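Fold this sequence, please.
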Amino acid sequence: MMKMSKRILAVLLALLLPLLLAVPALALDSYELFARWEQDGYPEDVTGVFYNTETKCLAVVLTENTEARQKELRDTLTDGETLTFFAGEYSHAQLAECAAAITKDMEENASKACVISVSPMVRSR
């Protein structure tokens, strides 16, 4: 009976050890999170992400810039403590819709010259 218990324990350890070692590898750093958002789409409460030259780290612009949301993002990252946060008025999706409408209007009215620069409205908190 003791041999069987040791075998079962050895098999369980052999199966669980790779999983336990893989968990830290699943955690993202802030740049990987930004890349994922660029690829898969931004959450509804995110206006955008930029490199903060003061802190030399990424900054996240949130439409709902609360301590709870900041903590949630920080806790999912390996380098979450380095993030800085700012408040934005519009989500990334809303800004993309505006940019698409402007682009469409410019294409339809090609004879009119127009230069447009879009940057998220940022308020420091």
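Strands lie at 46-52, 57-62, 84-88, 122-123. The mean pLDDT is 81.
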